[in-house]
Amino acid sequence: MHMSAPAEQTPPANPPRVIERTAPLRASGWSRVFSACIAIACLSVLSMGAWLNPSNEGHGTHTQLGLQPCMWAATLDKPCMTCGMTTSFAHAGEGDWLGSFLTQPMGSLLVVLTSVVFWGAAVQTISGARVGTMIQPALRPRMFIALGVLLLLAWGYKVITW
């Protein structure tokens, strides 16, 4: 028996094309409905902030909505973690960005984030563009940890400026 070396196989001239399955280019009907709900919720929050008159005290604007005064402020004479958020939104609603930031830095950041989410959701609702896929990489635990740290820092700022 004669053993010869195996012949080298050459690849075919036209290799078969591998078609990778990718995500659809347009959002589904349900994704667009969900985006519309998000856009409406964000616009409602932003509109409410624009409708309210910011309190000169830097907190307490939420009482214009029929809500009770903050129990932390009333009993401890100290701000709660979200103290001044509504007032910050009201300042931003009037176009007073400096007042919004000085009232509650985290509140002014949330105004910007709410606005960005509104526009992204509106674009996805109207055009079907999959805007949510661009936002998903940011939704990682470290982003929420960073937001938590910023919230704590803003609370510290509010305690100092109380």
In short:
This protein is mainly alpha-helical and 162 residues long. The protein has a domain at 29-56 and 79-161. It contains 7 helices and no strands.
Describe the structure.
- By secondary structure, the protein is an all-alpha fold.
- The chain has a domain at 29-56 and 79-161.
- Helices cover 57% and strands 0% of the residues.
- It contains seven helices and no strands.
- It has helices spanning 29-51, 71-76, 85-93, 97-103, 105-127, 132-135, 141-161.
- Helix 1 crosses helix 3 (85-93), helix 1 (29-51) packs antiparallel against helix 5 and helix 3 runs antiparallel to helix 4 (97-103).
- The radius of gyration is 26 Å and the shape is elongated.
Q: Give a count of the beta strands, DSSP E runs of length 2 or more.
A: 0
Mean pLDDT: 87
Shape: elongated
Measured between the Cα atoms of the first and last residue, the distance is 97 Å
Order of helices and strands: HHHHHHH
Low-confidence stretches: none
Main structural class: mainly alpha
Gyration radius, rounded: 26 Å
Number of helices: 7
Helix content: 55-70%
The biggest sheet amounts to: none
The proportion of strand residues reads under 5%
